[in-house]
Amino acid sequence: MLTEIARAKLNLALHVRARRPDGYHELETLFAFVEYGDVLCVAPAEAPAFQITGPFAAALAGEGDNLVTRAAARFAETFGGGAHAIHLEKHLPVASGIGGGSADAAATLRALAGLHDVALDDPRLFAIADGLGSDVPACLLGGTAIGKGRGERLEPVAGMPGTPVLLVNPGVAVSTAEVFRRWDGVDRGPLGADPLAGRNDLEAPARVIAPVIGDVLEALAAQDGVTLARMSGSGATCFALFEDAKACAAAAAGVARFGWWSVETTLI
Ligand code: C5P
């Protein structure tokens, strides 16, 4: 049996550059990952089995088809390896901009690759990831990276390991496709030399769909010791980076009264 952590993905910056003829958008983004995530256990079995538990299990339970089972099916088509029993402990909110489903799919591929001696840099594994979703290749790589194209053209860069992070989600699921559809089409320029000085171009359209995102960002920005407060991906999860863990803990206590989901963690 192999256990993998499907760590939450953050877009520390996300610049939308153009709408493409294929319906996707050309991006420039800085991907980073935090310690916190879903937990995935994979073991060889007589027949395929999938079980989901954990605080956000209900959002996915009953869906026969999900990114984990799809990842396992694609892996078996390409590499064989027989059937597997997969247990997913769901800690990340679903459809929330921190790559929960993508992280789970990537963790499934990593676990199966580990069980069947497939190298993690095998281009066939990357091709499966790319076919499952725009963020899955970044989650397969799993480290800080600049992403271009749909997010699949990846260039690893130095991260800021140990930086305290507070994740906050106000409990509204927003559709990624809908947020992209509402982007105003204005190219506000590339990621600069310091991507953290950039922005998330999906914040404005996501705030139209879920105005509470503005409340979250305002609450985070008002905390002591915050170095950056921004929305991740297409939302609604927002994050704040802090000078130290004490400031992060104080901020977690500070926003607790709103009743939003929140987690204190660190960048890897
Ligand atoms: O690739 P994925 O299936 O995760 O994307 C979900 C939806 O988000 C796409 O169908 C598309 O509408 C939108 N999207 C986009 N541009 C990207 C990534 C996603 O328009 N770069």
From TrEMBL:
SUPFAM superfamilies (UniProt xref): GHMP Kinase, C-terminal domain, Ribosomal protein S5 domain 2-like
Keyword vocabulary terms for this entry: ATP-binding, Isoprene biosynthesis, Kinase, Nucleotide-binding, Transferase
Enzyme class: transferase
InterPro entries referenced in this protein's UniProt entry, alphabetically: GHMP_kinase_C_dom, GHMP_kinase_C_sf, GHMP_kinase_N_dom, IspE, Ribosomal_Su5_D2-typ_SF, Ribsml_uS5_D2-typ_fold_subgr
Pfam families: GHMP_kinases_C, GHMP_kinases_N
Active site feature: 9, 135
GO terms (BP aspect): isopentenyl diphosphate biosynthetic process, methylerythritol 4-phosphate pathway; terpenoid biosynthetic process
Pathway annotation: Isoprenoid biosynthesis; isopentenyl diphosphate biosynthesis via DXP pathway; isopentenyl diphosphate from 1-deoxy-D-xylulose 5-phosphate: step 3/6
Catalytic activity of the protein: 4-CDP-2-C-methyl-D-erythritol + ATP = 4-CDP-2-C-methyl-D-erythritol 2-phosphate + ADP + H(+)
EC number, UniProt record: 2.7.1.148
Function of the protein: Catalyzes the phosphorylation of the position 2 hydroxy group of 4-diphosphocytidyl-2C-methyl-D-erythritol.
Protein name: 4-diphosphocytidyl-2-C-methyl-D-erythritol kinase
Organism: Sphingomonas gei
Gene: ispE
